[in-house]
Amino acid sequence: MVNIGFIGCGQMGRDHIDRIANRMGNAHIVAIYDLNRAAAEKAVADFGLDAKICDSADELIHAPEVDAVVMASRNDAHLEPLLACIEAGKPVFTEKPMTIDGADSWKVVEAEVKAGKKLVQVGFNRRYDTGYEQMKEIIDSKQIGELLCGDCRHFNAQAATSYYRTDNVVNDTLIHECDILHYLFDDDYKAVEIKCARQNRLNPNGAENLREPQIAIIEFQHGAIVTVEANVNCQYGYDIQCRLVGESGTVSLPDVATPEVRQAERIYHSISSDWFARFLDAYDKEMRAFLNRVERGEEPSGQMATAWDGYVANVAADAMLESLHNGGRVEISLPERPALYA
């Protein structure tokens, strides 16, 4: 049984608390912290937790009863707790992105290298989605040869919040593609360019605050090119697509299976707007993988996203933001991957 210290009791945090408390079976939340103490108190009450409410992330991390930490706090609150977990030698699962930029994420990588152990697992849940798992298997088997190009779609019915801004399209939306494409292609990025399309008049946040749709053009070191459409006000639902072209065929992410309805001279399938529901199984599998490897005393491996993966995603996002703000193609340069992550 793994004793968990939990940081962050917002929407994503509450979803993970429910997951650990009610669906995992091999973990107890024994300590909890949120900057807003009332949010922590509410989570303890709502989920019936027998957990100590801590006054700081540092207190939680160093509590002797805490075996591992799960963090779902704001993006800009990840760095210091991650470094504290590494220093304390405690495994930690953090929601994406690992930090707010490549510079901060490099500090996490350096800390792990200094400790000589991988402790951080980053919550890029798409790696655990069945459709993406099947795509990865086909790609790695070379069934369709080497990958040449592709196109992806990340559509939301509406922006997540009224304060969702232009940069959030990269930091909170395209960051998923920054990780999953690096994972599927198993190749480093060479360059990116972001272009903004004609603005959607139905955007409730206003074009002056939220410039989108955004189109990302991503180049890989071995020559492949992928375009990604990010549209957070598509109106019709939450729609994730990925089609990759190989030398002898293509592979595409399957649509979510929903009933086909034939009615009133129409044939249609429903598309949910609920992004939690779309990846519910992936979130469960991802958390189960984290808890199982902690229980076995293992470091993150295989399809688990490591601190290095989190760093690569942040560096790619940094380049996207540079292109978004200044225009043009931005080259991506990564240092040599430390042997710890080989």
TrEMBL record:
Pfam families: GFO_IDH_MocA, GFO_IDH_MocA_C
Domain Gfo/Idh/MocA-like oxidoreductase C-terminal: 136-332
Source domain of life: Bacteria
GO molecular function: nucleotide binding
Stored PANTHER family: INOSITOL 2-DEHYDROGENASE, PTHR43593
Protein name in UniProt: Myo-inositol 2-dehydrogenase
Domain Gfo/Idh/MocA-like oxidoreductase N-terminal residue range list: 2-124
Gene3D superfamilies tied to this protein: Dihydrodipicolinate Reductase, domain 2, NAD(P)-binding Rossmann-like Domain
InterPro entries, alphabetized: Gfo-Idh-MocA_inositol_DH (IPR050424), Gfo/Idh/MocA-like_OxRdtase_C (IPR004104), Gfo/Idh/MocA-like_OxRdtase_N (IPR000683), NAD(P)-bd_dom_sf (IPR036291)
Transmembrane stretches, start-end: none
Organism in which the protein naturally occurs: [Collinsella] massiliensis
Family according to the record: Belongs to the Gfo/Idh/MocA family.
